[in-house]
């Protein structure tokens, strides 16, 4: 069984995935906030890895970013693998 990364690491990777997609779409944090209805301060905190998002938050952001909510989690797992961390899902 592989060791799971600390939750803070997982949150940072999820935030990085959101930031990456937002930047690819050419959106500022303010623009993403306005389009999604999520406060900009919450997006900033999410991208910094300081927010443990619920599904509604991820869904709202994913909708504006043009991806499925699960795609954000999958991208975070890819980033973990790229950085040499564990991205195993809990069993």
Question: Care to describe what's here?
Answer:
The protein is an all-alpha fold and 91 residues long. It has a single domain, classed as lambda repressor-like DNA-binding domains (434 Repressor (Amino-terminal Domain), Orthogonal Bundle), CATH 1.10.260. 65% of the residues lie in helices and 0% in strands. It contains 5 helices and no strands. Helix 1 packs across helix 5 and helix 2 (29-36) packs across helix 4. The radius of gyration is 13 Å and the shape is globular. The chain starts with 6 loop residues before the first helix and ends in a 9-residue tail after the last helix. The mean pLDDT is 88.
Keywords:
single chain, 91 residues, mainly alpha, 434 Repressor (Amino-terminal Domain), 5 helices, 65% helix, globular
Helix content: 55-70%
CATH-defined superfamily: lambda repressor-like DNA-binding domains
Low-confidence stretches: none
Describe the oligomeric state of these chains in a short phrase: single chain
Distance between the termini: 10 Å
Computed over alpha carbons, the radius of gyration is 13 Å
| Range of strand content | under 5%
Provide the CATH topology.
434 Repressor (Amino-terminal Domain)
Name the overall outline.
Answer: globular
Order of helices and strands: HHHHH
Annotate the secondary structure layout.
Layout: H1 7-24, H2 29-36, H3 40-47, H4 55-65, H5 69-82
Short description:
This protein is mainly α and 91 residues long.
């Amino acid at each position: 069984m592989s060791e799971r990364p600390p939750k803070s690491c997982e949150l940072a990777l999820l935030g990085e995935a959101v930031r990456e997609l937002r930047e690819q779409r050419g959106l500022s944090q303010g623009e993403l906030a306005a389009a999604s209805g999520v406060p900009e301060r919450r997006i900033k905190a999410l991208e910094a890895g300081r927010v443990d998002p619920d599904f509604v938050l991820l869904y709202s952001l994913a909708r504006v970013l043009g991806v499925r909510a699960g795609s954000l989690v999958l991208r975070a797992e890819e980033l973990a693998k790229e950085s040499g961390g564990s991205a195993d899902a809990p069993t």
